[in-house]
Design a protein that fits this description.
It comes from Vibrio nitrifigilis. With 496 residues, the protein is of the alpha/beta class. It has 22 helices and 15 strands. The chain has four domains: 141 residues, Rossmann fold; 175 residues, P-loop containing nucleotide triphosphate hydrolases (Rossmann fold, 3-Layer(aba) Sandwich), CATH 3.40.50; 89 residues, Orthogonal Bundle (Helicase, Ruva Protein, domain 3); 46 residues.
């Protein structure tokens, strides 16, 4: 559908009285074949309908009778008031962009203020063409050779640089962590401050959020960066070997101990020991860990002498240590010894703004690894798939996202990973539960759908800090008007 949007000019009306064409009629009769002409008018209302009838007759004589002519009454403070003109144009463009395949805006009719607003708004629409007419009746395609976004970025770069120079510089160790969301930026600021100290740290968060990545960044940003970091998953340690793996053993300490062994504490001497899933440690090992923290010494299994060690402990867990201390499964004194510097890594669903950038980074890594495959083909992920990923809850967090993208790359038969490719590659617990136990839905069907829509709209508005323009893009809606209608129907306040 091709649409012409234009203001009504005084010359258009005057020429009509002499049965002569001015700008609007010239474009409608001689320009590209149009499905609709939308004319905006705020004055001379006693002449509007005569003009519309005249233009419709002229279109019929030109074998363009299928072109409809619509006159829209609009309210302006004055024909040179930029604020009211902009509001009118934005509202019209929101509606027309959703329905028109090609949109033409007439710059000749109307006041200079109307032309300026038309250029500024029209330049931001990909399928919009700016046109004007000459006194001789020629139609001119207008190309404004200015990239407004680039110019704005250029003019503001010095201010941004000035602001950045006044802020603490982020250590390179944290630059690899995607942090566009306020939640993740806050976590990294705390982690960087913690890195500059030598205090024990406790990294909390659900499985798969990247606690190990955060711990490594803290180590590499610390004064211990040139010393080793040792990593152990406490939940994967064999119960009968936990003591030996952490603290070492002497020769003959137990069956099979045919030589002395330095444990992870000694191996990490001068550096950092990262204890992942520290909540899985048995109580007897927790006692020895507490001693190592307090006395800075350890005793090998089977030994009678202690060894001094200088190790910084970073512990992590997805478990509720407060509840564990209450029920006696985790020592309270050890908890408070570890929880000096606490960093909470947010779940992926709480930092949706980071998901597109995370996907880009993960896809680079996945494509690089897949190069070794004999049938390798570099793949990209579609925008629809990215939009879906930004709203999916990702129960398994970044680990689930990474695995899902790997499966999508493996099974997709085209260079572009589609929305369907990504959805079919998800193996989350929620999806599996629905698949195995059948479809269940509480309450009224429409109420259920409305609750989903309301949650999505509220989330999109929060992520976009109340910007309807950004929110409608996140939701995949074509216009602000659709979003406004949803908000009104769902009872969502404008202030969200």
């Amino acid at each position: 559908m091709a649409t012409l949007l234009t203001w009504l000019g005084r010359k258009d009306l005057d020429q009509m009285k002499n049965d002569q064409v001015a700008s609007i009629a010239t474009i409608a009769l001689k320009g590209p074949l149009l499905d609709e002409v939308v004319i905006l008018a705020s004055t001379w209302d006693d002449e509007w309908y005569e003009y519309r009838e005249w233009l419709e007759k002229r279109l019929a004589l030109a074998n363009r009778s299928k072109t409809t002519v619509t006159l829209q009454r609009v309210r302006l403070s004055s024909p040179i008031d930029y604020s009211s003109i902009t509001k009118v144009m934005q509202k019209q463009l929101e509606t027309l962009v959703a329905s028109a395949d090609e949109l033409y805006i007439n710059l000749t009719s109307g006041t200079p203020a109307m032309a300026v607003v038309s250029v500024l708004l029209g330049k931001g629409i990909a399928k919009c063409h700016l046109v004007q007419t000459s006194p001789q009746g020629d139609i001119i395609d207008v190309d404004v050779p200015v990239d407004f976004a680039a110019e704005y970025k250029k003019s503001s770069s010095s201010s941004i640089s000035q602001l950045a120079s006044q802020m603490p510089t982020m250590h390179p160790a944290f630059e690899a962590i995607t942090a566009q969301s306020p939640e993740m930026q806050s976590a990294i600021r705390k982690a960087q401050r913690l890195a500059y100290s030598d205090l024990p740290a406790l990294v909390l968060g659900e499985s798969g959020v990247g606690k190990e990545v955060m711990a490594q960044a803290i180590h590499h940003a610390s004064s211990r960066a040139n010393k080793p970091i040792k990593i152990v998953n406490c939940g994967a340690l064999p119960e009968n070997l936990v003591d030996s793996i952490l603290f070492g053993h002497v020769k003959g300490a137990f069956t099979g101990a045919d030589k002395a062994h330095a444990g992870l504490f000694e191996q990490a001497d001068g550096g950092t020991l990262f204890l992942d899933e520290v909540g899985e440690l048995p109580l007897n090992i927790q006692v020895k860990l507490l001693r190592a923290l307090q006395q800075k010494e350890i005793t090998r299994v089977g030994d009678v002498e202690s060894k001094s060690v200088d190790v910084r402990i970073i512990a992590a867990t997805h478990r509720d240590l407060f509840a564990m201390t209450a029920d006696g499964t985790f020592r309270e004194d050890l908890f408070y010894r570890l929880a000096v510097g606490v960093i909470e890594v947010p779940a992926l669903r709480e930092r949706a703004e980071d998901i597109p950038a995370l996907i880009d980074a993960l896809m680079v890594d996945i494509n690089r690894q897949a190069e070794k495959h004999p049938l390798f083909e570099s793949k990209k992920i579609s925008q629809d798939a990215k939009d879906f990923a930004s709203f999916y809850s990702w129960p398994g967090n970044i680990r689930e996202l990474w695995n899902t993208l790997n499966r999508a790359v493996l099974w997709s038969e085209t260079p572009d990973i589609s929305l369907q490719d990504l959805q079919s590659s998800i193996l989350s617990a929620g999806k599996e539960s629905q698949h195995h136990h059948g479809f269940t839905m509480p309450g009224n069907f429409q109420q259920y759908l409305d609750s989903i829509k309301k949650e999505a709209v509220v989330s999109a508005l929060k992520l976009s800090h109340g910007s309807k323009s950004k929110a409608k893009d996140l939701l995949g809606l074509k216009s602000h008007q659709t979003l406004s209608n949803w908000m009104q129907n769902l009872g969502i306040e404008e202030s969200i």
